[in-house]
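Input chain follows. Return structure tokens only.
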Amino acid sequence: MRKISPNTLPGRLKILRKRLRITQVEMARQLQVSLSRYSKLEIGVGKVSAALAENICQQFAVPKSWLLHGEGDLPTKINCPQELMPTEKCLTEAQILRILELAQEPAARALAEQIAATLQLSFASALAVVIRENWSKNNS
């Protein structure tokens, strides 16, 4: 695998994406380009259009001079669009109790046993899937 220098535009794209803590898939989606196109840009295949460069600079609040020419440093404060923000949330006591109730329901446990046997998963993993699906249906 060829190493990309941070002194190049592809290297700076990768630095930006890593700083945002997002995948190439998420970055491509945010920039409204295909994953193939974005991943090629990150390894130095193809050129970044002026419109795409402008989009990157506007969305993430990075200076165009840094992105295009490597002048200065990537700001410590960059924009991370809300839809890319981690969604780690603490559960309330009521939610924890509901999850425990779901884990004890005979129908949920029976379904988890079937899933575990069919997919060769641990019972705990299968039960987590059943609870997550039940939670999604009831909380959407």
